[in-house]
TrEMBL record:
The keyword Glycosyltransferase applies. Belongs to the glycosyltransferase 2 family. Residues 6-173 form the Glycosyltransferase 2-like domain. The lineage of its organism: Bacteria, Pseudomonadati, Bacteroidota, Sphingobacteriia, Sphingobacteriales. Keywords: Glycosyltransferase, Transferase. One of its GO terms (cellular component) is membrane. This is Polyprenol monophosphomannose synthase. The keyword Glycosyltransferase applies. GO terms for biological process: glycolipid biosynthetic process.
Length: 243
């Protein structure tokens, strides 16, 4: 078993799932993969099962859930699965190649060099986003500005979903108390890691919008993030992070 696990939540990713799995397994460093599939009606889970049986037994794992339960709960499910095993480095990554699998090695190296949480950041060195319409770029960029303004944290890409956690971070954060399920989940995990005193670093990446499949962004997800940031800040006033 590898010391690194890549968690990939999926919902209707049949166009991408086999390619992303094979790419991760082709890297020079060994990573295991956990797919958390929310009952994809397009057969994503069946593709994963075929790959398990044919090529990647013991390295590729699948957890199937009933219904579309949200990104945050998929990652929490995956985090608990990883903590029940001996993985030291636990990653979040999208299935659609918006995150370059080659950068997994760079995020892992950042944690080896002292980071407790390494974030694949689109904005730490300018704006590194490819194929997004300008309104989407501006919304994402100024969302992070808003998060910094409200919470006081200094992360440039607060909604980033390409992350490496050291095991100790996920053991320390009370996962059952994480409230949010959309992009606010990503903000909450970074905010929590910082409040618990962990070393959170940003690693510059180039983010490329998906070319196949359908984006999961929605107005509801955006609203959760907008109002969730205020809830996070207020809630932190009444929470003891030194326990």
């Amino acid at each position: 078993m590898a010391d690194s696990l890549v968690i990939i939540p999926t919902y209707n990713e049949k166009e991408n799932i086999e390619k992303i799995i094979r790419k991760v397994f082709s890297l020079s460093i060994s990573f295991d993969i956990l797919i958390v599939d929310d009952g994809s009606p397009d057969g994503t889970a069946q593709i994963v099962k075929r790959l398990q049986e044919a090529d990647f037994s013991g390295r590729l794992f699948l957890e199937e859930r009933k219904g579309k339960l949200g990104l945050g709960t998929a990652y929490i499910h995956g985090f608990k699965w990883a903590l029940a095993r001996s993985y030291e480095f636990i990653f979040e990554m999208d299935a659609d190649f918006s995150h370059n699998p080659d950068d997994l090695i760079r995020l892992r190296e950042a944690c080896l060099q002292g980071a407790d949480m390494a974030i694949g950041s689109r904005y730490v060195k300018g704006v590194n986003v490819v194929n997004w319409p300008m309104n989407r770029v501006l919304m994402s960029y100024f969302a992070s500005v808003y998060v910094r303004m409200i919470t006081g944290i200094t992360i440039q890409d607060a909604t980033a979903g390409f992350v490496c956690f050291r095991r100790a971070v996920l053991k320390r954060i009370p996962l059952d108390a994480i409230k949010f399920v959309g992009y606010a989940f990503q903000i909450e995990m970074k905010f929590s890691a910082i409040k618990y005193g962990f070393n959170v670093q940003e690693v510059p990446i180039i983010f490329t919008d998906r070319t196949e499949g359908t984006s999961k962004m929605s107005t509801k997800i955006f609203q959760e993030a907008f109002f969730g940031v205020i809830q996070l800040k207020i809630g932190s006033w009444f929470k003891n992070y030194n326990k």
